Amino acid sequence: MAGDDLKITPTPALRVSQSNVLVNYEPEVNALLKLIVWKFTVSLNESTIGQDILNLKYFSGKTLQLISRRQKYVYALILIGSPWLRDRSSNILKYFGLNKWKEQSQKILRWIEVTFKLANLLNFWCFYNKESFTL
Predict the structure, then answer these.
(1) How far apart are CA 115 and CA 78, in angstroms?
(2) Which InterPro entries has this protein been placed in (predicted)?
(3) Which one of 2, 55, 71, 76 has the minimum C-beta count within 10 Å?
(4) Domain ranges in the chain?
(5) Which ranges constitute the DSSP H helices of the chain?
(6) What is the CB neighbour count within 10 angstroms for residue 119?
(7) pLDDT interval class at 36 (50, 70, 90)
């Protein structure tokens, strides 16, 4: 995803410090960085940095209207919330005393992540063949 490149820079810096407190909050730091990038790209410009270079924008369906605020937030939830939830799911289950559901929740989260990746691949394939996105 777009924010995965940001993960390379803070991780070694956080691990070098003597404090494990910063390492414990790595998923939150990554989510915050992705949120900042999303806010100044998709939220404000209706395009990512790469799309902006190519003069492309996100549109809603075939009506050629820019994506709505709700669609932007759903995109952010998928882009930012899904990886954060995957990284923190074991901690959340432990906090609520639901450790017995850990394996099933990991399977569900993995299935959701694979579904999103397949939808993205299908969307790209449709764009490649028809020169327009369908999903």
Answers:
(1) 11
(2) PEX2/10, Pex_N
(3) 55
(4) 2-130
(5) 10-16, 20-24, 26-38, 44-45, 49-53, 69-76, 82-95, 102-130
(6) 12
(7) very high
